[in-house]
Each structure stands twice: as structure tokens, then as C-alpha cells.
Design goal:
By secondary structure, the protein is of the alpha/beta class. The chain has helices at 7-17, 32-41, 55-67, 80-94, 121-127, 137-154, 164-167, 193-196, 202-223, 244-255, 272-279, 294-306, 326-337, 364-374, 406-417, 428-444, 484-491, 504-515, 530-538, and strands at 2-6, 22-25, 48-49, 72-77, 100-106, 131-132, 157-163, 170-174, 228-230, 236-241, 261-264, 266-268, 284-288, 311-313, 379-381, 422-427, 450-455, 495-499, 521-526. It has three domains: 2-223, Rossmann fold; 228-337, 3-Layer(aba) Sandwich (Rossmann fold); 364-538, Rossmann fold (3-Layer(aba) Sandwich), CATH 3.40.50. The protein has 19 helices and 19 strands. It starts with a strand and ends with a helix.
């Protein structure tokens, strides 16, 4: 069967065709469609799908399902692997029982991920976790299926490393369309602490087993057809991976060059023998990869064994910041080959910078100006979500921005270290993700920032995904509607006010009152996201 699919939807199709039973993760661009769209077809394919409260919990729930013998798929954006790494690294030691593929979606150029231009491939080497890098939706399908096969064959988690241009690329995809039973079949957990518990001295034995397993997977990688060679007798060659391969192909066409290319589908473990064989006859080599030069470093080591005279080019002719494109690769190839290429010069025009803005009718329009007016000299610690826009004009009130839940963690530190007023702003989805621990910490350690939770009844910025405060699961089932106010009370917060931010006078007076408290206080600004309200009226 053939169908035009987004990269994310090709991953979904491959998971279904591979017999996946359990899907979890946390919404984040550019991977959010995996959970959202899977939920729409999960029941008819006998699959259970959930958004977890954060990536660590999402991975851990999949680990439990895998240990019970089910095939599992986990999805998250780049920063999610930081959150779940405490459990990801031991999982490499224990291995899996049911096959598991973990989709990690990076965002070069920070189109949706503002904090850092993270390159998560380092986790593959660091954690000794097999990693595949697709270039397009067809490879998203093929590599996801292969990932499940590798996981099943070697009892290991497999990372599918994607980027924005892979997740959101569309093309005709050929797939099997395997029909599944619409009934979710539960697994069986069989007690075996020798296999599933990482405790010394067993931990050291597990590490040896893991390294032995990686050697076997490396032999598998050497024979794998996903490491492609485009042959040519030219003595200048290219090694690349992921979406960079498409830029290389286009650049060679533009420059009318015929160069040998080694496209690596396996990022870890690298097929070292194949690389050595490829570079052996070459005089010059360009390594094309986005962001950090991880492959370049490995090739430099191998070249010292195989071809000492080889000139290796990489980040000395290609940028280490931002996405690659055809033009950037053309410039690099022109420098190496001496081929003429007229770089397109863009005339710089001094235009006003376009920044993100709150949607029309957004409840935050009532909150930010009020906070700025009442406490202009306060330190505003910001968080991830729509409230990030507080850092842009006309608000300009965000003094710090780091990671999910960090607004209160940092706000606590500033409050304890200075005599300044501190206001920590956080969304409802972020509170459930990573806000409870810093709230408890602030209470326990007698801190006094004012925490403002913007409860717009949805996880809005990533595409309107449900969270524990809504009373609905990802699959549309009714569930407990968790109260932020009750959680705060349980953490020991004494001064709490729930209000509608459209009541500006009430918000203003509460901010003034709570800023004078000698202990942490909490304002919950509760009003539905304007876009969600419009959607609900239409449905």
C-alpha cells in the first residue's frame, strides 16, 4: 500500500505494522503528532496510548509494559531525553523483554524548542543505545520497523533519532498495512530480579553484557542495508546521515558533481569496517551532519588506522549552529573540490524583528500587564509553555527561562539569596510535569516567592494535549480531574487563591497581598485557552 504520510505518521504506521501494543510519551514539537494521531486510531488497532505527566514517567510506564512482554513505542522532543535519562541508562543495562523503540526528535535552529539547540545523539554513545537516523518519511517507516526487529533480536531499547525536517516532511510511503485485532491484549510480568533490577554486584555484570551486546549489534550494523553507498571513482567522498543526506544529493546535482557517498542509517554503533573500506581509496572526505560533529570525530579516529593521508573536512567548512541546507553544503563542496559556486547573497534589510505573540483572546493578556503594573521591580522567573511569550514585547517581564518547572526552582534560589520580590510563572501542564517538586522544596526550605500558575485548561503550546487537570485521557476516557489547589495544599502552601484573571482588580489586589507574605504563596489564574474554547463551540 502507498500513501502520502508525514514522517511522524509513517512512524505510527510502522509501529502498528510491527505489532506495537503500548504507546506513551510526552507532547513536544516536533514529535507531538505521534501521540495525538496515534490516539485517534489506537482502539481500532488494539493499542493503548497515553500522554504521561512527563517523559521520565512516560518511559518508565513503557518499561513496565516491555517487562510484561508488550511491544512499546515512546515519543518525546529532544529535552525529554534529559528528563528520562535516569531511567533510560539503567534500561540499557537490563535490556527489554518486549521490543521498544524510543523516538527522540531534535529541533536544529530552535524552531519550536527555545532553550538550547540540543543534539541528543550523544546519549546514544553515552548510554550504549543503538540509534537509527532516518532521512525521510519512507525511512521513518522502514527504520521504525527495523528498530523493533533489532530490539526484539537483541533485547535492547532502540532510539529513532529524528529532526524537525524529518518529522514534518511529507512523501508517498510504501507500507504493509498489517491488519490488527482491535482488542488490547495484556502481557504477563514474570518475576526475575536478576534481569530487571540494577543492584551491585549484578550491575557490573550487566555492563559487560551490554558491551558484548553492542559488539554483536555492530556486526549487524555492518551488514545492514540502511548504510547505503552511492559509488563513484572520484577521490573526494562524502559521509552523511539523516536529512543531511538529502541536502548532499541536491548539492551534488546543483554542482553537477559525481562523488561517492556513504549514508549512515546506523548512528550507533557505527559500521566501522564499512567506513574504513569507504575512506580507504579517498584523498578528501567531507562529513556532513547537523550540529556537533560526532560522526566526524569517529571518522578521524578510523582514518588514523586506515588512511593517514586522508584530508577530512567537516565543521571547518560547515556550520555547527543551525540547520543545514543545500546551499550550505554547496559552499562546503565548492571549497573542497574547487568547483565554482556563486553563493546567493541576501541583502540585509533593517526590519523590525517578528516575535511570538499571544493569541487573540488569550487569558494571559489579563495576567502579564497586571503583574508588570503591580510589581515592576520584581524578578520574574519564567517557564516553558505559552507563558514564555512574557519575555517578548509588549510584556518584557521574563528574567529567566530554562526548563520545565525551573521557574520556581530558580525563583526559590533568588528569593533565598536576595531581598527582592520574586514572581514565578508556570502553566498548568508544566506544573503537573515538573512543578510539584520545586513547590514542595520551596515550602520545606521556607522560601517566599509568589507562584502564579496560568491554568488555561489544556497543554496549549504543543497542540492542545490533555493533562491531569482536565479529567480526560489522551484516548478520550473520563478520569480523575486533579486539582492544582489541592496538590498545593498537600505540599503545605497556606496562601492560595483561585481566580479568573479577567477579574483584574481581584488579581491585582491578590498579587499585592501575596507579595508581602513571609512564605510561599500561590495564585491560580484559571481561564480556558481562547483557541480551545472556540474549538469546543464548533464541535
Amino acid at each position: 500500500m502507498k500513501k502520502i504520510l508525514l514522517g511522524n505518521n509513517a512512524i505510527i504506521q510502522a509501529a502498528i505494522d510491527s505489532g506495537v501494543s503500548y504507546v506513551s510519551g510526552y507532547p513536544g514539537c516536533p514529535s507531538a503528532e505521534i501521540g495525538d494521531d496515534f490516539a485517534k486510531i489506537a482502539a481500532q488497532n488494539g493499542v493503548y496510548v497515553e500522554w504521561a505527566t512527563n517523559e521520565k514517567v512516560g518511559l518508565e510506564s513503557a518499561i513496565g509494559a516491555s517487562f510484561s512482554g508488550l511491544k512499546t513505542l515512546v515519543s518525546m522532543k529532544s529535552f525529554g531525553i534529559n528528563v528520562c535519562s535516569d531511567s533510560l541508562l539503567p534500561l540499557a543495562y537490563t535490556g527489554t523483554k518486549g521490543a521498544m523503540v524510543i523516538v527522540i526528535a531534535d529541533d536544529p535552529s530552535c524552531w519550536s524548542s527555545a532553550q538550547t539547540e540540543q543534539n541528543t545523539r550523544i546519549y546514544s554513545q553515552f548510554g550504549h543505545i543503538p540509534t537509527l537516523e532516518p532521512a525521510d518519511p519512507q525511512e521513518c517507516y522502514d527504520f521504525t520497523k527495523l528498530g523493533f526487529e533489532i530490539s526484539e533480536k537483541f533485547n535492547t531499547p532502540v532510539i529513532l533519532h529524528t529532526t524537525t525536517r524529518v518529522n514534518h516532511q511529507k512523501m508517498p510511503v510504501t507500507f504493509e498495512d498489517v491488519k490488527k485485532n482491535a482488542e488490547f491484549k495484556k502481557g504477563q510480568f514474570e518475576k526475575n530480579p536478576y534481569q530487571f533490577a540494577t543492584m551491585p554486584p549484578r550491575t557490573m555484570e550487566m555492563k559487560k553484557e551490554l558491551l558484548d551486546k553492542i559488539k554483536k549489534i555492530q556486526i549487524f550494523a555492518e551488514k545492514s542495508k540502511i548504510n547505503l553507498i552511492d559509488s563513484s571513482k572520484n577521490k573526494v567522498g562524502v559521509i552523511t546521515s539523516g536529512v543531511s543526506y538529502l541536502h548532499v544529493k541536491e548539492a551534488l546535482e546543483v554542482l553537477k558533481l559525481d562523488l561517492p557517498i556513504l549514508k549512515l542509517g546506523f548512528f550507533y554503533p557505527l559500521p566501522e569496517d564499512k567506513i574504513k573500506k569507504f575512506i580507504h581509496p579517498l584523498k578528501k572526505l567531507l562529513v556532513v551532519e547537523e550540529l556537533d560533529g560526532y560522526i566526524e570525530r569517529e571518522v578521524n579516529v578510523l582514518a588514523k588506522i586506515e588512511n593517514l593521508k586522508l584530508q577530512i573536512f567537516g565543521k571547518n567548512v560547515l556550520p555547527i549552529i543551525g540547520e543545514l541546507n543545500t546551499e550550505k553544503v554547496c559552499v562546503a563542496l565548492a571549497k573542497i573540490t574547487g568547483k565554482k559556486f556563486l553563493e546567493f547573497k541576501v541583502k540585509k534589510i533593517d526590519l523590525p524583528r517578528r516575535t511570538a505573540r499571544l493569541c487573540e483572546g488569550c487569558p494571559y493578556w489579563y495576567v502579564f500587564p497586571t503583574l508588570k503594573r503591580v510589581a515592576p521591580n520584581a524578578i520574574f522567573t519564567g517557564d516553558i509553555g505559552c507563558n514564555m511569550i512574557a519575555g517578548f514585547a509588549p510584556h518584557n517581564i521574563q528574567d529567566t527561562l530554562f526548563s520545565m518547572g525551573a521557574s520556581l526552582g530558580i525563583g526559590h534560589g533568588v528569593s533565598k539569596s536576595t531581598n527582592q520580590k520574586v514572581i514565578s510563572i508556570m502553566g498548568d501542564g508544566t506544573f503537573f510535569h515538573a512543578g510539584i517538586s520545586p513547590l514542595l522544596n520551596a515550602v520545606y526550605n521556607k522560601s517566599k516567592p509568589l507562584m502564579v500558575i496560568l491554568d488555561n485548561r489544556i497543554t496549549a503550546m504543543t497542540g492542545h494535549q490533555p493533562n491531569p487537570g482536565m479529567g480526560k485521557t489522551l484516548m478520550g476516557e473520563d478520569t480523575t480531574q486533579v486539582s492544582i489547589e489541592e496538590i498545593a495544599k498537600a505540599c503545605g502552601v497556606k496562601h492560595i487563591k483561585v481566580l479568573d484573571p479577567i477579574s483584574i482588580k481581584e488579581l491585582e489586589s491578590t498579587v499585592k497581598e501575596f507579595l508581602e507574605k513571609d512564605e510561599i504563596s500561590l495564585i491560580i489564574c484559571k481561564r480556558i485557552c481562547a483557541l480551545l474554547e472556540r474549538r469546543q463551540k464548533k464541535s
